User: Fold this.
Amino acid sequence: MAQAKPVVYDLRPHRRSLAQRIWAYKWTYLLGVPGMTLMILFNYLPMGSLLMAFEDYDPWRGLFASPFVGFKHFVRLFGDDKFYQMLGNTLTISLLSLLTFPAPIILALLLNEVRSSAFKKTIQTTVYLPHFLSWTIVVSLTFFLLSSEQGLVNKIIIAAGGEKRSFLFDKSIIYFIIVVQSVWKGVGWGSIVYLAAIAGIDQGLYEAAKIDGASKFQSIIHITFPCILPTVAVMLILKMGSIISVDFEQVLLMTNALVKEKLDVFEVYIYENGVKSGSTQFSYTTAIGMFKSVISTMLVLITNRIVSSNGMKGII
Assistant:
């Protein structure tokens, strides 16, 4: 009598073709079409213009017919007497701003401990509002406070028997003013991400800590902060991507003849050489932008590697 063959079940997942997988999730992909279209149009297609950095671009000849010059514009940039001054100014402003990176984290931790709903909403509205003000308004408020003739601070100093000071023309404190403006404008908005991360923490952890006799401060140090640390790491990586950049509008509006040496940065240099002067230095200004992009990418990759090597998940 012949033995029955054992039944073998194929437990491997059925391999569907790419077309079948796309069709199975067609509505999900359809929802992503507008966003992908915008990304392709405004993020990927413009990358083709980076070719201008390696040629003497002539608008009449077009991108692909202009003469190729290799690294000519990069050599000019690195040989420019102002290059190292601009690099130093940009890094100084960015690194000083980086020192204020914990500010939104601290604000989020403090707001999370506020128990009065009405008071919490009032504080949130107050600290979020500056984000929606343009830099023109922020600089105007700075002028109103620190102006030599009409500034509120100088009026208080004079009323107290002191001598007025030209804060906006003082090279020794201009960086401090720039950083304070940035913190005041961005700290409230930056705290939203951390408040969202805090809201996702399991409340059972706090209850267990309370039973064990932990204080509020101990709960923040040993529960809240470790739980939002992955979010902090991601935000730090993204922050490093802009370390070689400053806010163009802010710096431009704060620049005057006496502090120009301290506020001469790449963004203003590109504006003055590529727009304000009416020149057609498309290739040179593109080379400057490409240099900044390469440095920013390297900083993001390095920071991401450091974060990943410490057991946290980066963005790549």
In short: Residues 78 and 84 are 8 Å apart (CA to CA). The radius of gyration is 27 Å.
